[in-house]
Give the backbone structure.
Amino acid sequence: MAVTDLYNTKKEKVGEVELNDDLFAVAVKPYILHDVVKMQLANRRAGTACTKTRVEVSGSSAKPFRQKGTGRARAGNRRSPLWRGGGVVFGPKPRSYAYKLPKKVRRLGLKMALSTRFAEENMVVLDQFQLDEIKTKKFIAVMKDLGVDNALIVIPSGDDKLEKSARNVPGFKVLPTMGVNVYDILHYRNLIILQSTIEQLEKRLLS
């Protein structure tokens, strides 16, 4: 098992933590990370783009001019896609872009993302991270002590004080263990994780 230093919020070493190789030392395959991120982004798409066909466009269905004798191309009504203000041919309609990869692939992608941050030495393990009040200034001070200016912070469960203190600070995001995902791990340069969170991740991904 790999071993990493355990810090407090002042970046003082308070111990060491053993990391499971099946979670933090997995061989990284970029195509799996690509597939999982692609799936996540597809699932986030709203899919609300919508255009009107010639049937849905408002306007008269009367023939605009007689069929012959005008020298113009024949026209059936003003809602034709060939006319300005007419319907759209093969335009987008509301749809879902969501799809799912196999559960094993999604789990493997998460393990690889964690292994990537650990291998790059961009992962900090804290013994605990709690704020007495909702205060952005205190959160920034902790990040300054840790020497981090861009990070995903993974905590065991929801913490309103920490989440609200961090939400207005650009370059940071706080997530509970159940919300951790491949895209956010790779999107932020650093990963700050609590010791208790590691135990929860092991139960979630290795059980």
Q: What stands out?
A: Residues 103-119 form the longest helix (17 residues). Helices lie at 21-24, 30-44, 103-119, 136-146, 160-166, 182-187, 195-206. The mean pLDDT is 93. The first strand starts at residue 2 and ends at 7.
